[in-house]
Structures are given as C-alpha cells and as structure tokens.
Amino acid sequence: MLVAQNFQQNKEKIKGIDIHYEYYKNADAVDRPVLTLLHGFLSSSFSYRRLIPLLTKAYTVVAIDLPPFGKSEKSNRFVHSYQNYAEVVVELLEKLSIEQTVMIGHSMGGQVAMRASALNENLVSKNVLLCSSGYLEKAKQSLVYTSYLPFFSVYLKRWLYRKGVKGNLINCVYDPQLIDEEMMDGYIQPFFNESIFRSLVRMIRDREGDLSSDELKQIHTPSLLIWGENDRVVPLKVGKRLSSDLPNAELIVYEKTGHLLPEERPRLIMKDIERFIHM
C-alpha cells in the first residue's frame, strides 16, 4: 500500500451531486497510465480492496463510487443512467487533470467503462472488463410504472434484504469460505442510509439497456475481458458474446471463480492487467 500522503479520499460536485473517489498517487508511475476502477451494481470501491494494494505499487489509481453507491451522494434527482455515469467519470478525470487512463470495470462498471471509452476515446486507452454486464434490457414498462407507487422504495428494501448480505455474497463467489465479517460489513454499510433505496427506485426508471451488439462493434478500444468460469450472476456465455462483438477484445477465463473477481483472484488479475497494459 502506498504511504498515507500519497492517498486521498475526496468528493467532487458533478452534475449537482457529490461524487466520492479515492485517489492513490504513485510518483514513480508518471510514465504509466492511470488506472480508473469502476465497481458493480449494489457495490462500491470497497470491492477492489484486495486489488488496490497490488495496483498502487506500480500505478496511480482512481477508484470511483458511482452514485448512489458507496460514499457518493444518494439523490432521487440525479439521472441514474449508464450514459450519465460515463459522463460523470469522464468529467471527474478531467477535473483531476488525468489525460489518459485504463478503465477497469467490474460487472455494471464494465458497461460504464465501455460507454466512457465511446464518449472520449482519447481519454480511455484500454478497457479491462471483469465479468462485465452485457445485453441486459431496460426495465419492463410495468415495473417502471409500479415504481411510482407510494412506498415502493420500502418494498425494494425488503426485496434486497430478503437473502441478507451473506446470501447475496454466496451467490457471487465460488468459495463461500471467502466470506467473513469484514467482507459482509463492507458491502452492507452503504445500505444503512435509507436514501439509497429512493435512488435505486430512480435507477429502475433511468437505466437504459446495455449496449447493443451494433453499438459494441463501434468500440475499438483494446479490451481485456476476464471472467469466472463459475459466474452465476453474469454467466460466461455473456463474456464469450462480448468478446465476439467487441472488435479488439481478448477473453481470459479463470477456473473455480465466481462473479466477484477482484475479491477472489486479485493477484491473477494484477498479472493479466500488467501483461495487457504492456502489449
């Protein structure tokens, strides 16, 4: 881990809300691209806690909490669409005077990374997509209409809490022994803020569908796709389809690995990222 003076947590006002980010500056990495970490749905930068100490030994790293997750503001005014997320990411990096970056996106973060690279291909030199979301359609109109009912956010909260944090994590990892109290506490913390559920209701309405095959074929940014063979959240068949649709993509599959790649295989990911960056 880098020494304390090279690490800062901060918030930047973008599109009217506070965006939380962690900035790990490595003075010895001036000739290397900055790495930007984007987490998945119902997650935060916490999901990169095992990978960040490895990456920061050789790179400057920015880890962003996409709203309403992590420590970013939970607002029902913000438009929670992937395109808006991509614009937030690009604007934040510009505010930090970062001219080029390699995007590392997990799950939902992969969709945001691809949209950011389409938005500013000069900024994003490469994408690393970890079990990226793909081919999900927009929420059905019936669900969107239902979301306007009073107390829908209460129903949503109960639905999310039904399995509990451990039950949800078990579905995301290959080996349940990986789950401990620290891990469960880290993933549950943002949900103690009741405002997040109203923001999630807004996200149901705002989230456009994932990028289509035709849109993916227009993204020429070099992309490394890393997948868990046993991913039950975003199955490997999605990764194979993405690697076929993206014009400049490579797919790597890890055995005995689930959906939470940054938690399950941080050292393997670090090794593959190093190779990919220096290709």
What's the arrangement of secondary structure elements?
Layout (H helix, E strand, L loop, with lengths): L6 E8 L2 E8 L9 E5 L13 H4 L5 E4 L17 H14 L5 E6 L1 H12 L4 E7 L10 H6 L5 H10 L2 H7 L10 H8 L6 H12 L6 H4 L6 E6 L7 H10 L3 E6 L6 H4 L1 H12 L2
Keywords: Hydrolase
Organism: Guptibacillus hwajinpoensis
InterPro entries: AB_hydrolase_1, AB_hydrolase_fold, Epox_hydrolase-like
CATH superfamily: Alpha/Beta hydrolase fold, catalytic domain
Mean pLDDT: 94
- Spatial shape: globular
Q: What's the CATH class label? A: Alpha Beta
Put simply, the count of helices is: 12
| Cα radius of gyration in angstroms | 18 Å
Number of E-type strands: 8
Q: Termini, distance in Å?
A: 26 Å
How much helical structure, as a percent, in the residues? 25-40%
Counting structural domains, the number is 1
Pfam family, one: Abhydrolase_6
Domain AB hydrolase-1: 37-267
GO molecular function, one term: hydrolase activity
Organism: Guptibacillus hwajinpoensis
Describe what you observe in this structure.
The radius of gyration is 18 Å and the shape is globular. The chain has an 8-stranded mixed sheet, with helices on both faces. It is built from 12 helices and 8 strands. By secondary structure, the chain is of the alpha/beta class. The model is unreliable at 1-5 (pLDDT under 50). α2 (82-95) crosses α3 (108-119) and α5 (152-161) crosses α8 (195-206). It has helices at residues 52-55, 82-95, 108-119, 141-146, 152-161, 164-170, 181-188, 195-206, 213-216, 236-245, 261-264, 266-277, and strands at 7-14, 17-24, 34-38, 61-64, 101-106, 124-130, 223-228, 249-254. α1 links the parallel β3 (34-38) and β4. It has one domain (4-277): Alpha/Beta hydrolase fold, catalytic domain (Rossmann fold).
